[in-house]
Prior knowledge:
By secondary structure, the protein is mainly α. It contains 20 helices and 2 strands. Helix content is 74%, strand content 1%.
Amino acid sequence: MGIPQTMDSLRERSAVVKDSLLKSQTITDNMVSILGSFDHRLSALETAMRPTQIKTHSIRSAHDNIDKTLKAAEVILAQFDQTRKAEAKILRGPHEDLESYLEAIDQLRANVRFFSSKKSFKSSDGIINHANSLLAKAISKLEDEFRHLLTNYSKPVEPDRLFDCLPNSLRPAASGQSEVGGKNHSESKKQSLETATFTLPTLIPPRVIPLLHDLAQQMVQAGHQQQLFRIYRETRAAVLEQSLRKLGVERLSKDDVQKMQWEVLEAKIGNWIHYMRIAVKLLFTGEKKICDQIFDGVESLKNQCFAEVTASSMAMLLSFGEAIAKSKRSPEKLFVLLDMYEIMRELKPEIETLFESKVCTEMREAAMSLTKRLAQTAQETFVDFEEAVEKDATKTAVLDGTVHPLTSYVINYVKFLYDYQSTLKQLFQEFDSTDPEAQLASVTTRIMQALQNNLDGKSKQYKDPALTQLFLMNNIHYIVRSVRRSEAKDMLGDDWVQIHRRIVQQHANQYKRISWAKILQCLTVQGANSSGGGDSSSGVSRAVIKDRFKTFNIQIEELHQRQSQWTIPDSELRESLRLAVAEVLLPAYRSFLKRFGPMIENGKNPMKYIRYSPENLEQMLGEFFESKTWSEPKR
């Protein structure tokens, strides 16, 4: 195929392409024209629809506002309805349904808060004023209800109910009499008290406590703390005092105490000890418990109410203790002072716990002050007792030389003291930090020495020096024996005991020397001792021997008549002294009788001179120190 043909073909193809491009441009122009037309129409449509959109939005906003308004109205109407219902309950009063009444008060308070936050509501102020007026009436009725409940359920506790709350060991005896002092005191009893269980009495029924608590809370929220405090204090304080008076507590002054007979006062002190324990461990602790429950959550009011309720009763109890501590001191008061000091020490932990708040400071300090005062008075009574023992000027002499009443009194006193060992050690430490055992030993030693000094003086009242020695022997022996059998031995020590046993022996030896030396001299003849030294009686005249027998008879009879009326109360000591005399007298008499008896028996009327056999003498010695009247024995 040639070139011309090729060129024609290319031209044809070029024309076709050109024609196609022209058609494509025409189509493009048409599409642009159509799209432009759509854009114009859409703009027009949007413009046309805009008012409709605005109306629709307004309708929706109005609908939302209507919903909100309706809901707000419903809430307000509900508040109105709740206020109406609360008002109805308030007007009915709290007696029918206290719980519902308290709920109504809470509702009124909620309504006041609600309308206080809705100041834009035109009627808010009126509604708030009305609700507050109702609340004032409601709180006034609450005060009346609180007083009514508290008064109705606050009754004095009968003594029998209080006694039932005590451990068995502390309950009164059937006789109703209480003993104090060393008579019934023991360390074991004190230890048993440490583990004893006390059961609190029911002062207000448990079911009433929550109601009183709720009433109190409402009154506090209403700002009526002072009215609440006054009602509670007046009611409970009066009931507490009545409980104590039923028990037997009375308000006594120092002058009242001074005028009382000791027996009456001693009984009252014993009762006071029981009253203190019952008051603190049962009544005051019970008051603290109900105070804490009723005023739970109001600490200041809780403490203040408890302090005011118990103040008068506590003062009444402590005033008696103070009157005793300040009264005239005397030895017999020491043990009751120790009992009183001991109960205050026993109650110290409870008192410190019960009266720990600031408003109770005065009562707590008054109790601690009484404890210190009792300790001081007891210590001063110790000193008084030592001086009284040493200076005792009792003129009553014991004619038979037995144990003097002062000796038995002092020894019993010391024995009782040792029933209070732990109490005494605590007492000593109130004033002196040195070893309390050493202090107790020192006190005991001084009392014993004071007694011995006094006995030495009393022994000089006897005209018969032999009776002087017998008296001292009896009394020192009684002291030593009593100490050995008591806890005082551990304090005074073995050395003290041994020294005083030797003193007893010294007095016994002195008695033998004074009483029997002259009689024994009758059984000796110058140059011919009855106990030996010669094997014959030559050189001694019968007249001398007769005189010796005669003198011996007179002296032994006088001695027997006199000393058979004397007394050695301790049987062991009595037998020991008789034996000691017999060991000296009988061998000497037998020897004298054996050597010189034949000289008399071979003469006229031997019975006139040899009146007693050794067996007769032994029988006579058996009658010594028995407080018996002498009669002439038969041979």
